[in-house]
Specification:
Length: 177
């Protein structure tokens, strides 16, 4: 999609300056995207404290939280603290590098192989005569989804305010009282 417009004015230097700021602002959206990313990081981290997803639904408590007390998904805080964002001039991504995050975000039901990638016991001998055995087993797993990444309706409102602020800065305007 392509859009174009033309404005002709006489002695409209202030208008030209404002339009110049808008053009520069839209060429460099990275600060806006970075701000949105920081906001969404905090929003996702808050979900661990609130124990609910972006849709507002409460997470099903984990067996550990029920058994030992405390909150679901925050025994060590590693997942919560791993949430980061990366911004460019066109997009922002919010996520985590924890490999198990997807299981918590989307849930999982099925069989998991724990241990070696084979189902049989395997022995090996190292130089010097040391012998070790590797054994695997399968475990049935039913992990409910506990989404922590996403955009809630509150997030949409806040992102809209960040965009408004960015545009006001681009135009050199101030916020209404």
């Amino acid at each position: 999609m392509t859009a174009s417009f033309r404005i002709d004015s006489e002695g409209g230097q202030e208008l030209e300056r404002k339009l110049g700021r808008v053009v520069r602002a839209f060429e460099g959206l990275e600060p806006l995207m970075a701000g949105i990313g920081v906001y969404l990081e905090g929003s996702a981290q808050q979900r661990f404290q609130d124990q609910k997803g972006p849709d507002g639904r409460r997470w099903k408590p984990s067996q550990r939280a029920l058994r030992d007390g405390g909150k679901t998904l925050i025994q060590s805080h590693l997942l919560e603290q791993s949430i980061t964002s990366a911004a460019t001039g066109r997009r922002v991504e919010v996520g985590t590098n924890r490999v198990y995050a997807g299981v918590h975000q989307f849930g999982f039901s099925g069989t998991v192989t724990v241990g070696a990638h084979t189902r049989t016991r395997r022995s090996s001998t190292l130089p010097g005569g040391l012998t070790y055995a590797v054994q695997s087993f399968e475990r049935q797993m039913n992990m409910p989804a506990r989404p922590f990444l996403g955009v809630s309706s509150e997030d949409e409102t806040e992102i809209g305010l960040l965009i408004d602020e960015f545009l006001m800065d681009a135009f050199g305007a101030t916020a209404p009282d």
